[in-house]
Amino acid sequence: MPSSWKGFLAFGLISIPIRLSPAARTERVSFNQLHKECHTRLKQPLFCPTCNRMVERSEVEKGYEYGDGQYVLFTQEELDNVEPESARTMEILEFVKLAEIDPVYFDSSYYAAPEEGGQKAYRLLTHAMQQSGYAGIAKVSMHNREYIVIIRARENGLTLHTMFYSNEIRSADYGGAEKTPEKTEIREQERTLATQLIQNLAGPFEPAKYHDTYQESLQALIAAKTTGREITASTHTTFAPVIDLMDALKKSLAKQSAPAPEKKQPIRMVSRSKESPAKQRKKA
């Protein structure tokens, strides 16, 4: 996998050559836009309305619009000249307790792997961070932006997370949930049952057991359409606001205690036959 960034991780007077590679990527079914008349895939070409012709990639340059239709132009060399130090060196500014970081600040994740000559210092830093429970805060520039990043130690090495800046975090809006009227105060018995419900649903974090059922349904639909089959529509549960909270809690706990129902059959594919029902009966 190509590296997203290469440089040095600076820790005091120690510098560790590292490379970053994406730790995760979104998997999804993508649809193309087609012309409704002929089903040809539509493209978005680079077209210059002034010259009235298509433009090659080699003819493209970067410009910033500072007024209506007015641009200041930049060469790649000029942009490279204003790169900050963090474009080449990621210096750890401070260490903070990992438990104190609100996950709302996490953006993208990367694996930070050591380059040749940096393995020993890399292992030392990883081990020290694991033992102390601290995460590093650093700056790094990539993709034409300087990021604040969180560096944390995992069992096999360092993982880096780009952070949202504080001005990018929106104020929480819980619809006035913190101003609950006195008439709707939580009773002790309700709190006990809710805690019991949580404990009954508690378990170890195993991300492999979770799947994107929507994407799976789309893939099943694509498979059915390409082979001339039909797919049954999904059923959806209808919900309504809870009127009696105690009754809902008791029923939830009772449902958990009941024997587990049999597993549902996978999505049923229905063959589409061009023969008449009468011919099908004769074959049978």
Features:
single chain; 284 residues; alpha+beta; Ku70, Chain: A, Domain 2; 7-stranded mixed barrel; two-stranded antiparallel ribbon; 13 strands; extended; disordered C terminus
Write the layout of secondary structure elements.
Elements: E1 5-11, E2 14-22, E3 47-48, E4 53-54, E5 62-67, E6 70-74, H1 76-81, E7 89-97, E8 106-114, H2 119-132, E9 134-142, E10 145-154, E11 157-163, H3 188-201, H4 213-226, E12 229-231, H5 245-257, E13 269-271, H6 277-283
Parallel strand pairs: 1-7
Antiparallel strand pairs: 1-2, 2-8, 3-4, 5-6, 7-9, 8-11, 9-10, 10-11, 12-13
Structure characterization notes:
By secondary structure, the chain is of the alpha+beta class. The chain has a domain at 7-25 and 82-166: Ku70, Chain: A, Domain 2 (Beta Barrel). It has helices spanning 76-81, 119-132, 188-201, 213-226, 245-257, 277-283, and strands at residues 5-11, 14-22, 47-48, 53-54, 62-67, 70-74, 89-97, 106-114, 134-142, 145-154, 157-163, 229-231, 269-271. The strands form four sheets. The protein has a seven-stranded mixed β-barrel. A two-stranded antiparallel sheet has the order 3-4. A hairpin with a 2-residue loop joins β9 (134-142) and β10 (145-154).
